[in-house]
Design brief:
The protein is α+β, with helices and mostly antiparallel strands and 305 residues long. It folds into three domains: 81 residues, Rossmann fold, CATH 3.40.50; 140 residues, D-amino Acid Aminotransferase, Chain A, domain 1 (2-Layer Sandwich); 69 residues, ATP-grasp fold, A domain (Dna Ligase, domain 1), CATH 3.30.1490. The protein has twelve helices and 13 strands. α1 crosses α12.
Amino acid sequence: MKVALLQGGRSHERAVSLRSGARVNEALGELGHTVESLDLGPELVSRLRDFSPDVAFVALHGPEGEDGTVQALLELLGIPHTGPGVSACRRCMDKSLAKYLMREAGLPTPDWVTYSEQALRDFGAAETFPVAVERIGLPLVAKPAAQGSSLGVNVVTAAEELPSALISALSYGSSAVLEAWVSGRELAVSVLADRVLPIVEAVPKDSNTFDFEARYEIGGASFTCPAELEQSEAAEVNRVALAAYRALGCSGFSRVDLILAADGPQLLEVNAIPGMTETSLFPQAAEAAGIDFVAMVERILSLAA
């Protein structure tokens, strides 16, 4: 097949996307496909038309590549693509919207408050900070509402830290989420064609959270896959993860991140297009299921085509 590999992009996750794309490109070559690597830019449509691919493999992360923008363009051009469709990408990318939808589906997710840049600038929303702290409690987590890879995430342990944490989160976008801190084990559940893969547990080595460095620097975290869980725990984690995947309308493949707390799993977010780097969790889960990286890429491609 002729495969257009979309990678790079203009988001803060460009470097991660290029690493994902490089691994996918190598796998597609091993599978014998004709590959054209394309970056986002003014010539994207003309290059897609010139190449006329049978399918597009989307290895983009963050805004524009993971929020439905590229997916809508590909669908307009009639090009099948890997990963979820436009509406699911939009839902997953907006963490606040995703949490509302999960709550509406009766799924557990930590309490949260959303602040927009406009509300803070034009409506005096900063006066509600004490209310937000009282409602959510401390510590809490401040993070961009539409960003991935744990960029712009800060743990707030005192009320006076809240303004600077929000400023940091809003530097990555126009809205931010304040989310109740949940103590527990950080788990990732990867879903491939509605099949739940073995659960991955991430344990950061030098920080209390699974931040950008822990995710993408070799040795930044240790991983256990399958995670060492009681059978009943694993069953419940898989149940809520698959329910979240479906509630947000995902298809093809995605990854659900959650915390296993003392009272059960708490859903954090669903990643519409999980990373494919050497330290990414989705490939680790596939490998634990007996699916090597090349076979995984082939499966993802076949789902799109």
